[in-house]
Design a protein that fits this description.
The protein has about 280 residues and is an alpha/beta fold. The chain is about 40% helix and about 20% strand. The strands form two sheets. Strands 1-4-3-2-5-6 form a six-stranded parallel β-sheet, with helices on both faces. Strands 7-8-9 form a three-stranded antiparallel β-sheet, covered by helices on one side.
Length: about 280
């Protein structure tokens, strides 16, 4: 087991990052909120292949949680995370506390317009402002050349790419495929909240996405029809409460009526305490 050093202050992270860069080495950042699963570990392993030093941030970001969301209950196990990070190829952990990230009097935030208006931006107002603010601060502290995110959070990845482009940040953003359980459920820290019955029903999310993929492959181009079929399938599960099912273009995340080109099918469904998201990109002629 590798003994991975944890850095807790911005000043020390700056010092270490500056030294790595002075040595001519490249830094990769994998931002996480901890309680790591195979999806996170796949990002760390990809970073290991891309750069010389891999930094994994572990920070449960309070400003991306809404007032009725699960900040206090969000699962945490830092020592377990440290072992997994070391075993997966991470070199350093950046683990500031909330006071270090947002000291008294903190008043600066980063907003990305447009891409945040639909999907999770509708049902979680303020969420993406919290995400883009914390990612900007992580970039400033860690000074990475490359940052790696997961496709499961497709809207988040699109928003961060736009932020990096608009703010001229010198960071390459890479997005890795969603890692799934054997029945297709996307791996997520929030899966821990599912009861056995909810966990069994949650596999319907992947089934709905696959059904949509088949419909499109068979020539269906009307989003109303595709979404309707997905909704009907999910609504057969008594424990599922649909937040949204949408078809949007991948460039601007705007809802589409007809499938043309590359389309993101995205959904969010509540099972008990767990709000689960998933998505699939389909390509049409």
């Amino acid at each position: 087991m590798a003994d991975v050093k944890a850095i807790q202050t911005v000043s020390e992270m700056h010092r270490v990052a500056d030294q790595i860069r002075a040595d001519g080495l490249q830094i990769g950042l994998v931002p996480t909120m901890g309680f790591l699963h195979e999806g996170h570990l796949s990002l760390i392993r990809r970073a290991r292949r891309c750069v010389d030093r891999v930094v994994v941030s572990v920070f449960v970001n309070p400003i991306q949680f809404g007032p009725q969301e699960d900040l206090e209950a969000y699962p945490r196990d830092f020592e377990r995370d440290r072992v997994l990070i070391g075993d997966s190829g991470g070199d350093l952990i950046y683990a500031p506390d909330a006071e270090e990230m947002y000291p008294e009097g903190y008043a600066s935030y980063v907003d990305v317009d447009g891409l945040t208006r639909h999907l999770c931006g509708t049902s979680r107002p303020g969420h993406f402002r919290g995400v883009t603010t914390v990612v900007t601060k992580l970039f400033a502290a860690v000074k990475p050349h490359v940052a790696i995110f997961g496709q499961k959070d497709a809207q988040q990845a699109a928003v961060i790419r736009r932020m990096v482009q608009d703010l001229n940040l010198d960071v390459e953003v890479l997005v890795s495929p969603t890692i799934r359980e054997a029945d297709g459920l996307a791996k997520s820290s929030r899966n821990k909240y599912l009861s056995p019955e909810e966990r069994q029903e949650a596999s319907v999310l992947y089934q709905a996405l696959q059904k949509a993929k088949r419909l499109v492959a068979d020539g269906e181009r009307r989003s109303e029809v595709v979404i309707g079929e997905m909704r009907e399938l999910i609504e057969r599960r008594p424990l599922a409460q649909i937040d949204y099912i949408e078809a949007v273009d991948t460039a601007h995340l705007q809802p589409v009526e007809e499938f043309s080109g590359e389309i993101l099918l995205a959904l969010a469904v509540q099972f008990g305490k767990a709000r689960l998201i998933d998505n699939l990109v389909v390509q049409t002629a």
